[in-house]
Amino acid sequence: MLSGINASYSFAGGTVLAWGIIGPSIVAAGKAFGTSASTVYPEYMSYTGMVMDDPVNRPTPRYWLVW
Fold it and tell me: What's the whole-model pTM score?
């Protein structure tokens, strides 16, 4: 076991909080942006990229949630 059970629960809870609650909230609020994941389906967005073209004006959720 690499980490204790309490740390594992903390990691799992932090993941749910970050990617299940905070990430979708900042996308819905218009604070974070995604990139088009497919040229065939431009409405299919990817929010997991760490695009650093314009992090001040168009940050991704991953940019917000990296610790």
Answer: 0.74
